[in-house]
Amino acid sequence: MITECTEADFATLREQLGRIPRGVVGIAARSTSGEPLVVATAPRLEDGTPFPTTFYLTHPAFVAECSRLEAAGIMAEWTAELTTDDELAASYRKAHEEYLATRSAIGSRAGIAEVKEIDDFSAGGMPTRVKCLHALVGHALAAGPGVNPIGDRAISLMTDVPTPAVTRAEADEDPDGTTTSANEASE
């Protein structure tokens, strides 16, 4: 579920990123302590620039772990696996399609018309290669386990990262495409 970005969240994002966040629509994933992990961004920034990375990973521990895994060369291995594992490739393509649909819904809710420049482009190399673990992990954290197989894999290899607040097993899909957990619905 994308939750409101409070003033405190915005200050945390600024500290995490080392700059003023752009195009913030809300917080797409939080830790169990409530700290932002992933920010949801508009598909078009205020200056008119198309912005395909809907789920932008902000938490320094996750960012560092993604960089560590990328430096280890895991992306080339996983890209090669996509060409030989039909089940993985199908699941990854489904993640790509989910990403596009969610970005479109976020844009609509934010009052942003279709952004044709990025219409078929999701993030992280989806659907045929693994290009950026930061984007794939951001998507996996925002969507919950079981949606992005490569993002899930990367998270499973990480150490010393905060625990995400909502897992796919706890989540229920609302008719408007947002996700709420039983805990969030009762608050």
Describe the structure.
The structure is a single chain. By secondary structure, the chain is an alpha+beta fold. The protein has one domain (7-186). Helix content is 44%, strand content 12%. The protein is built from seven helices and five strands. It has helices spanning 7-17, 60-71, 74-84, 86-109, 133-143, 149-156, 182-186, and strands at residues 24-30, 36-41, 55-57, 171-173, 179-181. The strands form two sheets. It has a three-stranded antiparallel β-sheet, sandwiched between helices. It has a two-stranded antiparallel sheet with strand order 4-5. A hairpin with a 5-residue loop joins strand 4 (171-173) and strand 5. Helix 3 packs across helix 4 (86-109) and helix 5 (133-143) crosses helix 6. The longest helix has 24 residues, at 86-109. It is globular, with a radius of gyration of 16 Å. The two termini are 14 Å apart. The model is unreliable at 168-187 (pLDDT under 50). This is DUF501 domain-containing protein. InterPro entries: DUF501 (IPR007511). Residues 177-187 have a biased composition (Polar residues). It holds the Pfam family DUF501. Residues 164-187 are annotated as: Disordered.
> Please, what is the average pLDDT?
89
In terms of DSSP E residues, the strand content is 5-15%
Give the structural class.
Answer: alpha+beta
Largest sheet: 3 strands, antiparallel
Number of helices: 7
User: Termini, distance in Å?
Assistant: 14 Å
Tally of structural domains: 1
Which strands sit side by side, in order, in the main sheet?
1-2-3
Uncertain stretches: 168-187
Shape: globular
The helix content, as a percent range, equals 40-55%
Strand elements, count: 5
- Report the radius of gyration as a whole number of Å: 16 Å
Order of helices and strands: HEEEHHHHHEEH
